[in-house]
Amino acid sequence: MSMNILRFLGRRKATAPLARERLQILLAHERSLRGQPELLSILREEILAVISRHVDLDPDKVIVRMDRGKSVSTLEVDIELPNGFDKTIAAAG
Amino acid sequence: MERGEGEAEMAKVVVVTSGKGGVGKTTTTAALGAALAQRGERVVVVDFDVGLRNLDLIMGAERRVVFDLINVIQGVAKLSQALIRDKRLENLWLLPASQTRDKDALTEAGVERVIADLRTKFDWILCDSPAGIERGATLAMRYADEAIIVTNPEVSSVRDSDRIIGMLDSKTVKAESGERVTKHVLITRYDAGRAARGEMLSIDDILEILATPLLGIIPESQDVLRASNVGSPVTLNNAASVAARAYADAARRLCGETIAMMVPAERKRFMDRLLGRRAA
User: I want to staple B71 with a disulfide (CB 3.0 to 4.6 A). Which of A54, B26, B77, B201 is the partner?
Assistant: First the structure.
C-alpha cells in the first residue's frame, strides 16, 4: 500500500525516512530482547505444554508467528486441534 | 511448497560469496532470488550470517522473524516454521539467520540436513554467505552446486575473490568427491566512466585475473540504496532500473539462457554530472 503511494508520487520520493523508521522499530525490539534470546522458543514450548495437558496435539501443527509494529508486537499462535477434542474433554470431565 | 510427485528436476544450491565484506552479496542474493521467483521458480534465500543477519532487512521481513536457521538445526523449530514467505512473491521464501547466537552454533551435520530438506521443496536455494573465510562462510559453500562470486572492481576485492575460488575448489563436498562447483563472477559497483578513464579495473582485467566466467555486471546505482531503505529487492522495487535489469539478465543466464553481456551505461543526471558527484 505505502509502496504504491510512493511509486505514484514519483521515483525520487525520499526513502531515508522509511529506512530510519524501520531501523528504529527493529533495533528497539532487538534491544528489548537482549538477554532473553530464547523468549519466543520458551513461549511456544510452554503454550504447547499447557494445551497438551488437556488435548492431544501434533506439535507440527503449532505455528507461532510474530508481527512487530511500531508500538506493539502481535504474537499469533495457530494451533490445529483434532476433531472431537471437546468431546474428549467432556468425557474426561 | 512441496514439489510435485515424480518431478525429476534437481534443485540447485547456489552460494553467493566474496570473502570481502560490503561488495553486495546480500543485495545480490535478494535481487537474484526475487528475479528467479518472478520467472516462476520456487526460491528460498538462506542467511548464513549468524549473529549479523541482514537478509531479512533487505527483504523487508525483519518484523516477521520468529524462528531461524539455528533453531531449525537444533530442533527447536521445524523448517516450515522458520521459513518466511515473501509478501510480494508467493514462491519466494526466506530462512533467516539467528541474531543472538554466534557461528559456532552452526554444525556441519545440521546444515547438511537443512539443505537436504530445502532441496525437496525448492528449485533454487540461494545461500547468502557471511564475509570472511571462517565457519559461516565455509558452511554456506559446503553443499553448494554452484557459486556466484561477487566482486567489486577493486584490488582487494579481486584478491579476496581469488582466495574464495580456491576454497570452493577445496572445502566443498563437491570438491572432496572429485567434482567441481560451477563458478560465476558477478561484478558489482561497476562504473563504466571510471573504467574508460583507466581509474577502475576493467571487466577484462578482472576476468583474466580470476579466470572465471562472467554472470553479470551491475553498475553502481542509487536504486540499490533506495531498495534497501524500503526493504524490497531492487528487482521488485524498481524493475526498470539499470541495476534491476542487470540482475534480471544475470538470473536468466543462471537459468541457462544465453544473453549478450551489455556493459550497462546509466545516464547521469545533469546536476550530478555538473557537480561531478559520484553515484552512491
Answer: B77
